[in-house]
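User: Hey, my collaborator sent me this sequence without any context and asked if I could get a structure. I don't really work with proteins. Can you help?
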Amino acid sequence: MPPTCVSPWVNPNGDWRRIRPRGYRPAVAVASEEEREIWSGRPSWRGRMAILVPGVLLTILALVICLWADLSATVTVIAVGIVALVTIVWAFLETIRWKYTITNRRVFVRHGLVSIHEQTARLERVQDITLHQTLFDRMFGVGRLQIDTAGSSGGPLEFKALLEPTQVREVLENAVRAEQHVSDV
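Assistant: No problem. I've predicted the 3D structure and written it out in structure-token form, which is a compact way to encode the shape of the chain:
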């Protein structure tokens, strides 16, 4: 009788044929069947004001320079449009390249578009969760969570530009408490 296995990489009937294509990797690797996603999110566009405000100022500056230099309307529209487009695309890419995930076992910070960098920490290793909000962040309702873990060599995990960061911190703290309770039993 073949050994039974509940791995997603093996057929449920126990034979050892691959059921997913070679090289398949889920967006966030889940270690076991019991692991489930509790929260997932990306940075808020409000947290990208550090890109958008200077971009708007550069767009206005480009408009003023074009008008001062007495350039044609077509050149002015093209120059201002390019600066505005670069600002918007930069803010958009900076937002979509980050993804944050909390499962009942681990916390992930994943960033990148072409090459991916992923930091992972087990919840039982989380020692401190710090919320950072500048005055500017508070005005826009965003903040940054810094998650310190025991024995991490890669530095703390950071959830940047979070919308309603206090709620995310509570979700993470509850998950950490639940994981510590499970590991104590």
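In plain terms: Residues 4 and 76 are 69 Å apart (CA to CA). You can pass these tokens on to your collaborator as they are.
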